[in-house]
Amino acid sequence: MFIADKNLGETPLECLERARCEKGIAADVPMTYAGRLDPLAEGKLLLLVGDECKEKEKYLGLDKEYEIEVLFGVKTDTGDMMGLITEVRPWTNTMSDLCTEVGHRAKFAQEYPAFSSKTVSTRSDLGKKRQLHELARTGELPDEMPTKEVEIYSIDELGKSELSGRKLAERAAEAISKVHGDFRQEKILENWQTFATEHGGETFSFTKLRVYCSSGTYMRALAERMGGMAISINRTKIVKVTPRTK
What we know:
Elements: E1 2-6, H1 12-23, E2 31-33, E3 41-49, E4 63-72, E5 74-76, E6 85-88, H2 95-102, E7 106-111, E8 119-121, E9 129-131, H3 132-138, E10 147-164, H4 165-176, H5 185-199, E11 203-213, H6 219-225, E12 228-239
Parallel strand pairs: 3-12
Antiparallel strand pairs: 1-3, 2-3, 4-11, 4-12, 5-6, 7-10, 8-9, 10-11
Helix pairs in contact: 4-5
């Protein structure tokens, strides 16, 4: 077992295979990861090797720490820059308002994002399990989305800044260019180009946060809960015990 640093744009599997090569682990040795990271998320990924793979379940419940940037005034269908823009509007809430809404130590049932790997049974396929992102692409999402109870232990504000719409679109394009595989990149890049044309001269604010939370908490969903979207997600720690609130 060891912790690898997943790069921006990599899938967890791509990170695993890169780590296998770097560590010189033979191709016939089993490896897996405990806890996913989205392509546009980076940071700590727990990798299991050999017989440890059989005990994956016991590693899935570890608490996490993230540093994220939440941008306000723009929403996408994924909750991050790897999605189609669904809303652009002025934003007036202050950070204190947001922390009150989310709660510094709060338990709640968080809906799995539509574009996630969570599997659900489908009525049309006689109960066959399919991943939510597959259903989202075909417009077959369930009427009631699955949820998971998660807990936010603490949220600390690390700073505030601003981006023009043009710079935001450039940042999105640069990040998306690092992603391989089929993630609707062409359509999403066209969407961001349209955004740059229509909103390039506008200013958008974002806040950097440090979040301590339970396993399974989606930072994209947390950003949406705050009324914005995640423009960066960095998992900085995988911890074995619940961190104390400050």
